[in-house]
Amino acid sequence: MNSTSSLRPLYTFPGWVVKDINLNSEIAVVKIRKNNKYNLKCPACSKGKPKENRRIWQTVRDLPLGPATTVMIHYEAIQVRCKHCGSISTILPPEIDRNAKATKRLMNYVSEMCRYMPANKVPEFIPISESTARRWDKRVLMGKIPEPDLDSLRILLVDEKAIGKHHNYLTVVINGDTGEVLHLAEGKKKESLSAFFQKLTAKQIESIEAVGIDRSGSYKSAIKEYLPNASIVFDKFHLIANCHKAVDDVRRNEWKKADQNDKAVIKGQRFNLLKNKENLKDSQKDSLAILLKLNESLFEAYLLKDALKQIWNYRYAKAAENYLERWIAWANESRLLPFVKFAKGLSKDRYEILSYIKHRVTSGKIEAFNATIARIIRRACGYGDLEYLYLKIRQEALISPQT
């Protein structure tokens, strides 16, 4: 093994000096000791001049050095007793994490790797286990990711996110103005959202004007209980998706009743019926035109689908309400059972639907961030630690805020 002095600046931490460096192609061992020019200070109170009890040589991992992926720092841990505060402490070099058996810079490096690759890939570059990579990443994020800003909230967006094959869900709350992730809880029940509201002060609750959700009764119940003065806005994209389901139910019913010739016309038309007309190719427009001319029920369903979207173009609540009443009447007159049922739900939820006219709240930000959550979970092959997942999600949101 060859000793080299040119590497000493890399390991000269404040108050500590390099004693020796031994390096070969696979491993490097660096010995450092306390610089006797500096007096010892109590880590607990920083005031007294503690009395030294003993010194113990300990070892931690550090960043790779060239081809040497394993770098060990051998240092003196100094146990002291402070006469001023009476505490017994151990003094370590400032770069050493006393709980992780690693330098802070190595832990930060591993955490950065975990942002761009699965934790199970980290051992291919750093000689540590996958579980250690996750543990270090979580520790770094806990110290780096700030608590969410719960002051001056105006708009909240709430949605559930499926995270497993067995119907495991998360409730996600974000700031509708900034896109900051504020809350993550297991499940999609009232309690999952109530836990967030219980963290808010009376002043923070008072500032919230509106909450955008889908038509989930459990979320609605929690909002009414904790935010009695806030408007509930049912997301228009969820409502359009519900309308699309009604169109598809009509298509299925018509398929069942059709003879072979008519089935040939209906076949393959599902997406043509649901897409916006401007997004269809010429051949799809021609095929759809033949279908709508042939089948009156699907023609009515198609017209109702397009007409519903006009509600959200209104600027005045009363005009929007009048139009919604007309649309509900059209749906009932069609006698298409999927639309009659859908219209009944719209009539019951008219207040939450029309709240959009005042607040213009949609789930766009949270739906976009759902893709980020899915990517984080997929990269990690799932998460058993909800606190860690929340930190990873907040990390991504703070680095790449939603617009």
Largest sheet: 6 strands, mixed
**Bulk shape:** elongated
| Overall SS class | alpha+beta
Oligomer: single chain
Helix tally? 15
Binned, the helix content reads: 40-55%
The average pLDDT score comes to 89
Give the radius of gyration: 31 Å
Write down the secondary-structure element order: EEEEEEEEHHEEEHHEHEHHHHHHHHHH
- Distance N to C terminus: 55 Å
Low-confidence stretches: none
Number of domains: 3
DSSP strand tally: 13
Tell me the strand percentage band: 15-25%
What would your notes on this structure say?
- Helices cover about 45% and strands about 20% of the residues.
- The protein is an alpha+beta fold and about 400 residues long.
- The chain has 3 domains: about 100 residues, no CATH class; about 120 residues, Nucleotidyltransferase, domain 5, CATH 3.30.420.10; about 120 residues.
- Helix 5 links the parallel strand 12 and strand 13.
- The longest helix has 22 residues.
- The mean pLDDT is about 90.
Put the structure in a nutshell:
By secondary structure, the chain is α+β, with helices and mostly antiparallel strands. It contains 15 helices and 13 strands. The longest helix has 22 residues, at 236-257.
Descriptive terms for the model:
403 residues; alpha+beta; Nucleotidyltransferase, domain 5; 3 domains; six-stranded mixed β-sheet; five-stranded mixed β-sheet; 13 strands; elongated
Write the layout of secondary structure elements.
Layout: E1 2-3, E2 16-23, E3 27-34, E4 51-62, E5 70-81, E6 88-91, E7 96-97, E8 102-103, H1 104-116, H2 130-144, E9 155-162, E10 169-175, E11 181-186, H3 190-197, H4 202-206, E12 210-213, H5 217-226, E13 231-234, H6 236-257, H7 260-266, H8 270-274, H9 282-294, H10 296-308, H11 317-334, H12 337-348, H13 350-359, H14 364-380, H15 386-399
